[in-house]
Amino acid sequence: MRFVGADELGPDGAGMEFRFQGIVPVARASGPDTARSAAGRLAAETVAWLPQALTPQVGARWSPLDDRRAVVTLEAGSETVDVEVRVDAEGRLESLCLQRWNDAAKPPAFEPFGGRVEGEHLTEDGVRIAGSGSVGWGWGTAEAVRGVFFRYSVIAATPLPGVPRPPSAST
Question: Where exactly are the structural domains of the chain?
Answer without folding.
Answer: 3-153
